[in-house]
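Hey, can you fold this one?
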Amino acid sequence: MTSTPSKADTSYSTLTPVRFLDSPKQKFQNDQLLSCKTRLDTLTNTLLDNFTKWQTAQKRGQSLCNSIEAIKTKCMENNKTPGGSLFPEELQPYCDKLAIIFSVFEDIVKNTKEALRQLTAIAKLQGTGSEIFYRTWFIEDFIDFTKTILERYQAECDVKKFVTEEIAHCRDRCDLIRVSSLWEYPCHVDERVKLLFLFLAEELKVK
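Sure. Predicted structure:
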């Protein structure tokens, strides 16, 4: 009996794999997301750096307020007798330095507004809304975070402005303590803000 001829074995080892190129649209989206990620890296690092600057300015400003309070208290005691002055010359350098510290807060507010503007622009690009760039946050989460921080920065900056303008003009001890305490105990950039930045650092895996 004649056996049925078998098919010859076909070897695939010599075949060259076919490479399918990304479509122009897909490549554009990938490049766009990469660009957005790079920009987001810069913006989030700036937000973190600015918060560190805010904390440093808070401490330096508090030190200046303490010095102003001490000078003013001494002046108030001396003013119990004729010839005493509530505005000695030695007060001016501290007030000037406090004004410089306040300008740091103003700059941080401006920078945060710009960060929010750029984040909002990124969110309008195709494909960014559903993309998770780090661990769990979408771009809208970064926008919500920045909006919250900006609102608190602005509110606290208003308080700092009031203290900067008024502390040297206090005419009694109670008023002086009240104004100085407004700087020492922030009611807007507080522990909750610190916690929010810890959340951001965790999202970015910043240690």
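Residues 99 and 164 are 6 Å apart (CA to CA). Let me know if you want another pass with a different chain boundary.
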